Amino acid sequence: MVMFQWGKIYCLYTYAHVEFCNLAVMSYDRYLAICCPLHYKARMTSNKVALLIAVIWLYSFIKFLITLCLNLRLTLCGNVIDRLYCHNYYVVKLACSDTTVNNIYGLFGTFLTVLVPLIPILFSYTKILRIYCLYTYVHVEFCNLAVMSYDRYLAICCPLHYKARMTSNKVALLIAVIWLYSFIKFLITLCLNLRLTLCGNVIGRLFCQNYHVVKLACSDTTVNNIYGLFGTVLTVLVPLIPILFSYTKILRVCLVGSKGTRQKAASTCTPHLASLINFTFGCCFEILQSRFNMTSVPRMLRIFGSLYFLTIQPLFNPIYCLYTYVHVEFCNLAVMSYDRYLAICCPLHYKARMTSNKVALLIAVIWLYSFIKFLITLCLNLRLTLCGNVIGRLFCHNYHVVKLACSDTTVNNIYGLFGTVLTVLVPLIPILFSYTKILRVCLVGSKETRQKALITS
Length: 457
Known about the structure:
This protein is an all-alpha fold.
């Protein structure tokens, strides 16, 4: 009976481990078949497949063996498991003796089971993931602009009915429909791409776009090209209908309304129109660049156009732009002060310490730190219930958004103060450290050293 129970645990554990690892190997196989079709047969040989299968089963058996050894040392005080199947965790819960080691290994083993296969899966699907992110970004951005235009129409043309029509349930439904529509469009694109036979794996572009993947195909791409053009038109026209409808209505109200109404409409719609024009310009440039031969256009201009399309529009988000600008600016000043400290106080070690890799790492850390801080602020704000939508300020600041809330804002205020102190103090420490060291060198150094430090700093 005991052996039967352990047999069940073994089957359950090996099933989970082997299944995850098989998915990882399958994703690597798909990566080779799609991204390196000419090298597929050389890399995915029958010997390698046999080796991978053997490693998967051996890895699963060793993990189970460690689990079994840890469990055998326990003293059990019961034998009833109220579950459909016998899971290792419920066996451990029956123990009277100390189970700390079992629990730690259990958590470690769970993470290992998921994370080890996840690395090749993520690596293999990076290109597809990049196309998905790019496509959903474009579709969702256009649809968001359409919903925002409808929201402005209700606020200006039907202010008394605004709260009744633009409810939280309707907003949630619109968000769900936007993401579902974008996902279905991408899914059709992906299915059409998977049937193609690719004859190359090099895309001479700044980012991985679907049309350039299709251009690598040796097989017939007529359906892909037709759907690509249809999808492009659909991405623009579907959101354009509510945008044109909304602004036609707003324009009509402005023409027959008072001066105050026109001023209110202009102040409310200007940021949205700026975002719309900016994003449309970026998309048009990218479509022209991908569909037509643009070799006559200077290379730097093409790179700038691609970067403009991907980066400028997200930065139009006022709160995100304002927050990241402040955080990144402070952190940049801190890094610059450290750079000056190395140049003045340790000139012989400057090139060894301030390498291009370290600079790239510092830039990445600064942006990641700023993004995480903004993400926490956003999560805290999303839980609030707002009782207004008018901010009497030149720009949209987080604190003034919080002030519109009817619900409790204690956590937001505490984090706001903590975040402000953190934004200033974290960069201030390396700045003070660097300039203290520089000042010390200036005091004991020669006149030439002081002049150099003054010019540099």
